[in-house]
């Protein structure tokens, strides 16, 4: 099952639902255009595609209409939103009354709630002008998330600002601290990363943690209105996925009050 969308609540619901039934999730960068997305969707043999209708000014509806003939494995197309679409379901259509479906034994969490190691998320990223696949077991993602949460001492009182794109590898690790149990409030600051939206979210929601790549921290710290936002609620967070400049880490600790943060060099 492929998800092609920017950050939104429906993305999270779709992902958790797919994991629950044991589907392999293929996350697609919303910045990709038709030819690039078609390669990923075709190469992954996606049978179900859940997509936003557009990302900024680019229409996913038009792009998918243009590539459907080249996706022989596609069985169902679903769009977020309640607008009708030709030969596709809309998001409310998934909530219509019907027979409850149960995961096949050994494939998914099933009725016993156990996440089995056969589940995995396939994450495709651009690299040197081409695409590649990266398979991650859900067990490994949850295990990593659990220990990240343990190290950061997360409780039900914590609130995490997560502007990282959901399709990225950092997203499942960051979004599931403490083993994925509902102990913290986790939320995106906007559809895509925006410094003022992120700063406003931290200040208004009194976030205690911020997750991002080094360039996000640099952008926040260099925002001309940085000092107008109250970030004193922050205590921890994560900076990774790329080398972390020493000065940026120092400013995150000093100016952003993140004295209990975790840094990664890669």
Nearest-integer average pLDDT: 78
Low-confidence spans: 101-119, 172-183
Large-scale geometry: elongated
Helix content: 25-40%
The strand count comes to: 14
Major sheet size, sense and barrel closure: 7 strands, mixed
How much β-strand is present in the residues?
15-25%
Could you state the order of secondary-structure elements as H and E?
EHEHEEEHEEEEHEHEHEHEHE
Query: What is the fold named in CATH at topology level of the largest domain?
Result: Rossmann fold
Give the strand line-up of the largest sheet.
7-6-3-1-2-8-9
* Highest CATH level, the class of the largest domain: Alpha Beta
Q: What is the gyration radius calculated from CA atoms?
A: 19 Å
Structural category: alpha/beta
Q: Supply the CATH architecture of the largest domain.
A: 3-Layer(aba) Sandwich
The count of domains is 2
Compute the number of helices: 8
Termini Cα gap: 28 Å
Written overview of the protein:
- It is a single chain.
- The chain has 266 residues and is of the alpha/beta class.
- It has two domains: 2-137, 3-Layer(aba) Sandwich (Rossmann fold), CATH 3.40.50.980; 152-263, 3-Layer(aba) Sandwich (Rossmann fold).
- Helix content is 30%, strand content 20%.
- The chain contains eight helices and 14 strands.
- It has helices at residues 9-21, 34-43, 60-67, 138-151, 170-175, 195-205, 214-221, 246-254, and strands at residues 2-4, 25-28, 48-51, 54-55, 58-59, 76-79, 89-90, 120-127, 130-137, 159-161, 185-187, 209-212, 236-239, 262-263.
- It has a seven-stranded mixed beta sheet with strand order 7-6-3-1-2-8-9, sandwiched between helices. The chain has a five-stranded parallel beta sheet with strand order 11-10-12-13-14. A two-stranded antiparallel sheet has the order 4-5.
- The protein starts with a strand and ends with a strand.
- Residues 101-119 and 172-183 have low confidence and may be disordered.
